[in-house]
Design goal:
Keywords: Chaperone, Disulfide bond, Membrane, Metal-binding, Mitochondrion, Mitochondrion inner membrane, Protein transport, Translocation, Transport, Zinc. With 101 residues, this protein is an all-alpha fold. It is built from 3 helices and no strands.
Amino acid sequence: MDSLGGAGMSAYASGDPKTQVMRQIQQEAAMQNAKMLVEKLNEHCFERCVPKPGTSLSKGEETCFSNCLQKYMTAWNTVSQQYITAIQKNSSSSQFGSSSF
C-alpha cells in the first residue's frame, strides 16, 4: 500500500501533525504553481506563435510553439534553481546562528 515513498512516507507519517499539515500545504501549493506555469506557458506561446488559429497548426507554428515552450522552461528551471540555492544558503546560514538580525 505504501508504493509512493517507502521509508520516506513513513518518516512523514511519524512526524507531528503540524509538520504533516505544513508539508501537505507545501505540496498543494507546488501543484497549483505547476498548473499555473503550464497555463501561462500555453497562453504565452500560443499567442506568440499562432496568430490566426485554425483547425490545425502549420509546421512553422508547431516549431515556434515547441521552441517557445523549451525557452520558457529553460528560463523557469534556471530561476527556480537559483531560488532554491538562495533558500538553502539562507537556511544553512540561519542554522549556524549567523543571522543578520
